[in-house]
Amino acid sequence: MGTYETLKLERQGRVGWLVLNRPEALNAMNNAMRDELADAWLELDADPEVRVIVQTGEGRAFQTGADLREIATDGQGFERYKDSMVDFDLHFTSWHQKVNKPVIAAVNGVCAGGGLHFVADADIVIAASDATFFDPHVSVGQVTAIEMIGLAKKMPFEAVMRMALVGSHERLTARRAYELGMVSQVVDPPEKLREAAQELAEKVARNSPAAMAATKKALWAALELGLTDACRVGAQHLVSVWGHPDQTEGPQAFVEKREPRWKVR
Questions:
Q1: Where are the domains positioned within the chain?
Q2: The whole model's pTM is what?
Q3: Taking Cα atoms as reference points, which of 70, 3, 79 lies closest to residue 30?
Q4: What CATH number does the domain located at 7-205 have?
């Protein structure tokens, strides 16, 4: 695995871990982290030993968005992001990098602002029982858009609008996030989060990589389309794996009562 300044990449069996590693800054994203994330997602997606990716944060925060100290002091401000936003060429999350492998976000502690990108873009999200979520953009004079738009595809619109407009003055608890569908599991006690994430990832990793990649494409595409068009696209992804060795291996393993031997790609 590559060596990074702001991230830790680890492999535990068939599970690749992407750990945000600026705990002293609550894992806020500076220029270095932004650039490194673009490489790290692709490294994990290309690793034949990794079937599932788990993202989490080191320390007491998952991720707290852009590093406001850097933005306020280095003379570039938010201009650093202008071209990537205008061109919609972000690269620091799994969805924008078109990662084919399943991605689980394991939210520990504080998740704020741009950290919600990773919640919106993950395939599965779980959270420690002491995790909290809020979006401070409007509280620091900024527009919140992409993160909240992504979440509006996953949870009730009014809850998303409330988070966007209340800003830093209200925090969503892990339990409330679960009730709203932002996360699918709350882990208690919090220190069991990584263990729970590894266990969940290992369950996912038992499945056909080819089938899961096509499934991800079909279901994410459905958020972009109406029902009929989504089903048409889904049918295309379904038949895209016809003839793949996993289609024969799956039923054969079931009949023989053994673990399937999937093709890596």
A1: 7-205, 209-256
A2: 0.92
A3: 70
A4: 3.90.226.10
